Amino acid sequence: MRILAVDPSLRGTGIAVLEEIGSKVRCLEYSVVRNRASLSQEACLIAIHEALVLAITKHQPTALAIEKVIFVQSYATAIVLGAARGVAVLAAAQAGLSIHEYPPKRVKQAVVGKGAAAKEQVAFMIRALLGLTETPPSDAADAIAIGLTHLRTISSPVLKVTATRAR
Fold first, then answer.
1. Which domains, ranges and CATH numbers included, belong to the chain?
2. Mean pLDDT in runs of 10 for the chain (167 residues)?
3. Measured by CB atoms within 10 angstroms of the end CB, which terminus of the chain is less buried, N or C?
4. What are residue 7's DSSP bridge partners?
5. pLDDT tens digits for 105-115?
6. Cα–Cα distance list, 80 to 11, 77, 94, 102 (Å)
């Protein structure tokens, strides 16, 4: 199984492609779409969409795992984050991928063992769990963590019951 995992953000969207063969998981690619503060919201959304379409075309995943929005600091932040998430969901839907959402605390719990883990802890655990030679940038590490959460969820009969699937 091959999945695309996304940690959406207007200025730093984390993207990862994970592949599970048997009980082995490997990260085929990870990146961060970094958009300058001077770039318009529209230009940022186009850059995110293009990067996702490229990853989908290159790796042919069957599913998208994406962070579910639970809490944001303000309405403005929620709207901008929603736009970035919407672009990711659109790219996946256009390619026929199934879409699965996971709350941030659940992702941290699945990877680090506690739902209040710091970004640095997530990145460190991603490096350790996948045997990477370098620690990914935090946005990419978050995307990888979301992907690992999805793979663990679909392979666990207990967790399948609580998985949230976007409609």
1. 2-165 (3.30.420.10)
2. 96 97 93 96 97 98 92 78 94 97 91 82 90 93 96 69 44
3. C
4. 14
5. 899 988 888 77
6. 10, 5, 21, 19
